[in-house]
Each structure stands twice: as structure tokens, then as C-alpha cells.
Amino acid sequence: MPNSNVRELENSERTPVPGAQVIGVYPQDEQIEVTIRLKSEPSADFHSKVLPAGKLGALPLQERTYLNRTEFEKCYEASSSDINAVTQFAESFGLIEVGSCGAGRLLRFTGSVAEMESAFEITLLRYSYRFGEYRGYVGKLKVPVAVWGSIEGVFGLDTRKQSKPILATTSKMPLQGNSQSVLQHLIECYQFPQGWNGGGETIGILEFGGQFLLQDYAAYFQQTNLGSPLPLEVGTVPQATTPRDDLEVALDVEVAGTVAPGAQTVVYFAPNTDKGWVDGLCAAVYDKKNNPTILSISWGKTEDGWGEDTRDVVNQILMEAAQLGVTVCAASGDDGCALNKNGEARVIFPASSPYVLSCGGTAFRKDKGEVVWNDGARSATGGGESTVAPRPDWQKTLLPKQPQIGRLLPDVAGLAARRYSIYSRGGYVNGVGGTSAVAPLWAGLIACMNQDLQRRPIPSRVGYFNPLLYNTPALQKTFNDIVFGNNGLNGNVGFQATAGWDECTGWGTPKGQALLNAL
Asked: For 1, which of 135, 491, 493, 510 is 20 to 30 Å away at the CA?
């Protein structure tokens, strides 16, 4: 007979990774840490102080007002009754609280396998799959009715690899080169505002693997007179690292640091799991010490590769970032018009979130100028239509002859071809690229624009500007329109570049000074 005192948590279902095999169970005394995300209880005056993200993003920059992170937390935190109820529930099963994030509405608990299985009525299984092993469960989590309405998600019970670095490399990757020439060319080509270097701004970079060595970063900038400050690290560097993950970290940090050398760079490391994504994003979005104004994310996975609860909570955190005035730049993916097993087009999350600036990729050709980045059978810029995020109001004027279904991406673009040279592990790696490079490139551009905007008579910053971009022709004219190429791979037709917005490069690549003037 079903237990009437417990209820299933919505969207908490997990199924095994395709091809994974059960290889055993876990010792009952093995320790696990989980993160529980609580529902919000906005204060009575919250809606008078904080506009919905869509309305806020549609306002001219000078008409926007933002709460600081402390004020936002006071207006948006979980209720004390929910916190107490969930804490009592966890402690009743022997779980011990080990941390929290007030603004992120997170409570973290540790406990044994036996205690976790009892608390959430699951069996934890060891799986073997192509990335090694992971811990998982089948079905949905169950919690007592008394706390069911207080919890948005529980993360950390499943440890499968959640995302991948969206990075393109050559096959040989020779260890020598000139890292500055391509980026200096882009600063000129994309008309970065002259006289600004991002000073006073903080760029937060999310990393779910890899590490960087300060001596590598210092060696990279010794070749220039940029004087970029050394980046700060926040969070725990994952134990497992690969040359590819390390290269992703180096690419993100070095691109952002080159184009905005006056900005402070803060790198937020977190494990590559659903828990890592929730914890890492909250650490960045609600960082009261460093106060990042721009975030760059070059990791992701197709939408169907995320637990629905994880995707929902990550999307909520990104929405809250928008309400705080933080611009989030995310790589749109390097798999072109990715297809699922049914031949249906897929897109990358979190780039498909309506609260991020989704960054597609271009390449330069002598005969046609700047075109859609597509290396044929290897990789191409991601783009298309979301199957989970509804078409936002600010995109409903696009593709009027097609059904208004999902969020369309990308929004903007930049050079993604394998022309970057990155310093990592003591030497240069040539032939690096991907839309991974475009997210930090745009983050650096926005830092420079913010620096200028903060010095205007009415200080402002770019923040979340997707709604403004899609509904303001004057802004759309400040882009280099990319009209050649497509993002089809391996015989798939993909999407074709056209005049105006398209599913390959969005509105195009920036004319930075013109965009700043229009904003």
C-alpha cells in the first residue's frame, strides 16, 4: 500500500545513462554530501523592488534599478519555517548540515549511504559507463509531505558527468605560437570601445573541470604590456583533470584577460555533476565579496542530457542573475545542428536558457569574409530551437511563418575557428577554438562597455539585454550580419545563415563601439 505520508519530488526522476551497466551497490557507511534547494518566499515588497527578468531586460539601461546581492537575499530567501522544516527532516534521518547559501536557498547535508537511501526512499547503485563510474538511482525521490512543498530539488545523489567543455582543438596541437595576434585582431575587427579595458568590472568564469597554474597565466601575460591581474579562484578544483579540461580553463581565462585586462577575473570551480552546477552557479551569482557583473560559461550538454529538476533550478538561478543585472554569456556548442536518436535537432543547455546571451561561432574566409563556423565533419557552431524552453515574448517576431514553440539560439556570435593559441601546462597550444572562445570574448567586451556606462551621468551596465536587443532595430544594426554558411554536420542540412537573425550566428558579430553608443 502506498505511503500517504510521503510524496514524490517533481522532476527528480533519473534513468541510467544509455549503455551504463550496474556493477554493484555502495557500502552503507560511505559518506555522501547533498545540496537541497528550497523554494523562495519573496518578501511583501519584492515585486515592487525587483521586476520580472523579461520586463527588466526590455528597459533602456538608464531606466533600470538593481538591488545589491545583500538586498536581493533579504527579499528572496527561503522562509524560516521552510528552513526549519527541511533541517528537522534531514536531522531526523541522521543527516548533518555542513553549509548553506541564503540567497541561493541552499542547504547542504552529509550522511551515510544508508541514511540517504532511507531519507529519500531510493537505492543507490554503482554504474559503469564510458567515463568510468558514477553513482545513481532509478525513479523519483520521495520526502515527507511536511517538507514536500518546501523543496525544489535534491542534488548530489547522482554523480554522472553533467557537461563537457565546449572546446575545439586540432589533432596535433603543436606547442608553440603567438597567442596575442588573433585577439588583438579581433579587438580591432569587432571595434572594441577605445580607451576602456574593463577596469572596475569583475568577470566570473564557471569551470566544471580542469585547473590552471598561476605561473602559466603569468607567463602568458609577460609577453604583453596589458598588466592583467592574476585571477582569483573560488570553490574546489575537481580531483580529476585532463589536458582538455585544463585547456578549457586556460582558454576562458586568457581570452577574457586579453580583451579586458583591467577587469578582475574570478574563476569558480565546481565538480562536473548536477550538485556542482547548482553549487557553482550559486557561488558565482551570489558572491557578495567579488560581485561579478558578467559571467562566462563554456560548458554544457544537450537539453535531454539534464535531469529536469537540475535544468529547472539552473534556469531559475540564471533568471535571478538577470534580475541582479549580471550578463551571463554561454557557448552555444560545437556540434552544429546536433541530432538525437530520432533525428530531431537539439541545442545545448545552459545556452538555451532565455536568461543568457547565447554565443555562436564564425570563421574568416578570404573569399567571403566572416562566415558561419563549420569545419565539415568535425565541428560547427551550435544553434537551433529549444525543445524545453518556451519561445520568450521578445523572440516572437522571429520566424513568423513557423510555429512559436521554443527559445531560438544563438543571440550573438564571434570567432570560433581554431585560430587561438593558448598557454597551458608550460607551453603554447595552437589551433584552439570553438564557441568556448566566444563566451569569454563577449564577456570581455561587455566589461569594457560597462566601464564606460558606469562613468555616464546616469551610471548603468549592460546586464540582461536580450529583450532590448530583439526589440530594438537600432541595436540590431550594430552587428556584422553573417549571411554565408550553415551549421549542418555529417550530412545533416542544419540551419542556413540569412540576412538578419539566424540559427547559426544570431544577430552576428559585434561592432563594439556602435553597440555601446546605441545602448
From this structure: 135
CA 150 – CA 90 distance, rounded (Å)? 13
Which residues 6+ apart lie within 8 Å of 512 measured at CB?
Answer: 190, 191, 192, 193, 445, 448, 449
The 10s digit of each residue's pLDDT in 342-380 is 667 789 999 999 999 999 999 999 888 999 999 987 899
Which pTM was predicted? Answer: 0.95
For the chain, the straight-line distance linking the first and the last C-alpha, in angstroms and rounded, comes to 62
How many C-alpha atoms does 69 have within 13 Å on its Cβ side? 18
pLDDT recorded at residue 436? 97
Which tens digits make up the pLDDT trace of 171-211?
Answer: 544 444 455 678 989 999 999 999 999 999 999 999 999 98
Residue with cell 585582431: 185
Q: Cβ–Cβ contacts within 10 Å for residue 128, how many?
A: 15
DSSP letter string, 252-317: HHHHHHHHSTTSEEEEEE--SSHHHHHHHHHHHHT-TTT--SEEEE-EEEEGGGS-HHHHHHHHHH
The alpha helices in 324-434, defined as continuous H runs, are none
Is the preceding peptide bond at 410 cis, omega within 30 degrees of 0? Answer: yes
Residue 82 parent element (H or E): helix 80-92
Determine the pLDDT at residue 234.
Answer: 82
Task: Tell me the C-alpha distance between 481 and 487, whole Å.
Answer: 16
Separation CA 384–CA 503 (nearest Å):
5
H-type helices in 93-233, by residue range? 113-120, 145-148, 180-189, 214-222
Task: Check: CB of residue 281 under 8 Å from CB of residue 203.
Answer: no
